[in-house]
Amino acid sequence: MIFLIAGMFIDPNSAIIVLVPLIFPMAQAVGINSVQLGTVMVINLAIGMLSPPFGLNIFVGTSVFKKSFSEIVPGLFPFIALSVIVLLLFTLLPELSLFLSKLMLR
């Protein structure tokens, strides 16, 4: 949730630089795999960049498509809903995020 909220207000690079040193030791202490943490973190930040009121991608969309903020936001909700479903799958099923890394170790 912290990365989701951070993604709404600041750009992802800044959020990663500021928050990872705080979150990573706690995740290691609990036993969360670092690959899964990174995957969940990136998905959270991507959802935050799409989410109103200050999602960076909303403002990019308004300038690229020459549409108003109120015209773009309703079209985002299906994408946000689908992204939240993917986030839940990757969070609850760590095998999904660890599949490629385990494949490379073979």
Give the gist of this structure:
The protein has 106 residues and is an all-alpha fold. It has six helices and no strands.
Can you offer a commentary on this structure?
- The protein has 106 residues and is mainly alpha-helical.
- It has one domain (2-19, 27-104).
- The protein is 84% helix and 0% strand.
- It is built from 6 helices and no strands.
- The termini are far apart.
- The model has no long low-confidence stretch (mean pLDDT 90).
Please give the share of residues in helix.
over 70%
Low-pLDDT residue intervals, each spanning 5 or more residues: none
How large is the radius of gyration? 16 Å
Number of strands: 0
Our count of domains comes out at: 1
What would you call the structural class? mainly alpha
- How many H/I helices? 6
Cα-to-Cα separation, first versus last residue: 33 Å
Please write out the topology.
Layout (H helix, E strand, L loop, with lengths): L1 H8 L2 H19 L3 H17 L5 H10 L3 H24 L1 H11 L2
Helix pairs in contact: 1-3, 2-3, 3-5, 3-6, 5-6
List the defining traits of the structure above.
106 residues, single chain, 0% strand, 84% helix, mainly alpha
